[in-house]
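Hi V.,

Quick status before I head out on leave. The structure for the redesign project is tokenized and pasted below; the design run finished overnight.
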């Protein structure tokens, strides 16, 4: 099933809630089972480099396997998404969000960049 169209979010907030991943079950499963893929697409989208998603996914995976601190990378990605889309928040809240529920944070960022009206790598690869 295609995801339901997102209602316009008020300025300064994410279009989708942190715990709203069941609104898009395939994206939710991908974030929980292989979070490096949506993470890679999100960062590649922010870099305007569609081909670079695999590099970012590998860096995320190596960081997760070797240090267990992939939440630091996700915290930085959240900060970039917030800056790009004018979302309120702080680095501390980004770290807390990524630390407490990494897959939820990954899917929220992925859905934000995929639903922002851009023809980015996430939107193209998830269809």
């Amino acid at each position: 099933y295609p995801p339901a169209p997102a209602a316009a979010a008020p300025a300064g907030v994410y279009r989708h809630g942190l715990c709203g991943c069941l609104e898009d079950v395939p994206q939710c499963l991908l974030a929980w089972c292989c979070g490096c893929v949506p993470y890679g697409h999100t960062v590649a989208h922010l870099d305007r480099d569609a081909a670079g998603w695999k590099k970012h996914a590998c860096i995320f995976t190596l960081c997760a396997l070797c240090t267990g601190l992939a939440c630091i990378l996700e915290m930085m990605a959240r900060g970039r998404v917030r800056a790009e889309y004018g979302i309120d928040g702080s680095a501390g809240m980004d770290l807390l969000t990524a630390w407490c529920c990494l897959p939820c944070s990954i899917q929220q960022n992925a859905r934000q960049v995929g639903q922002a009206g851009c023809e980015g790598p996430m939107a193209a690869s998830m269809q």
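Above is the designed sequence. Residues 117-127 have pLDDT under 50 and may be disordered.

G. will cover questions while I'm gone.

Best,
W.
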